[in-house]
Amino acid sequence: MSKSAARRFFLLGTAACSVAFVLLTVDTIKRVPAQTNQHQLTASAIRGKHLWDSKNCMGCHTILGEGAYYAPELTKVYERRGEVFIRAILKDPEAMYPGERKMVNYRLSEQEITDLVAFLKWIGEMDLNGFPPKPDIRSAIASPIKSGTAGSETTSAADVNVAAKPAVFDQMCTACHSVQGVGGAIGPALDGVGARRDSGFLSTWLKDPLSLKPDSRMPKLPLSESQVSELVVFLSGLKAEVAK
């Protein structure tokens, strides 16, 4: 190839790539309002964004792929944990994880907490083309374990209870406790808890663990009566210990 031909090839190739880049950029910008649900961006969420910046939350957390990796990634935190958990940890991080978490207590007002929750909810509902990928950490307790001989599999009553766990269990309890090996290790595993504790004890414990054990590291969770009832039914159904 002659020098003049190589020059033309380079110039035409550069021009074509530049045009393609511009067109792709324009197309991406056009998609932004729909994919970010811009019409759902409330005044509260906007205030939450300003609060996120002013408190330098990205100094520890990552959101939309940007930030630090010292603390958990928060793009889909609303989906994973729900509003109750987020409000509780923003109000008092140390109470949720005694001696475990290094998060600063910013002494946020109820309105500031509401604004941050609104911001995280809006971020979590964006169409990010599958980002971040969902970790496959719930399959062990999301699907009933089959028992019986080949061709005659059955599902035990305990398995049905495990499969029907309430959403608040995944949002709050698995941060510290595990079932069938899935969940946190800060608190004891809950396999077999239904055989060890009756529903009255479980209800009282969930409402105020310190009333039963003053030195307990478990905080008094902001659970509603209906959430406590759902958790008691679920936990009471966990009869079998996991074989180790």
Which descriptors would you attach to this protein?
244 residues; mainly alpha; Cytochrome Bc1 Complex, Chain D, domain 2; two-stranded antiparallel sheet; 6 strands
Report what the structure shows.
The protein has three domains: about 1-35; about 35-135, Cytochrome c-like domain (Cytochrome Bc1 Complex, Chain D, domain 2), CATH 1.10.760.10; about 140-235, Cytochrome c-like domain (Cytochrome Bc1 Complex, Chain D, domain 2). Helix content is about 50%, strand content about 5%. It has twelve helices and six strands. The strands form three sheets. It has a two-stranded antiparallel ribbon with strand order 1-2.
Any chance you could write out the topology, listing elements then pairs?
Elements: H1 3-35, H2 43-54, E1 62-63, E2 66-67, H3 77-91, H4 93-96, H5 110-124, H6 139-142, E3 146-147, E4 154-155, H7 157-163, H8 167-171, E5 178-179, E6 182-183, H9 193-196, H10 199-207, H11 209-212, H12 225-236
Antiparallel strand pairs: 1-2, 3-4, 5-6
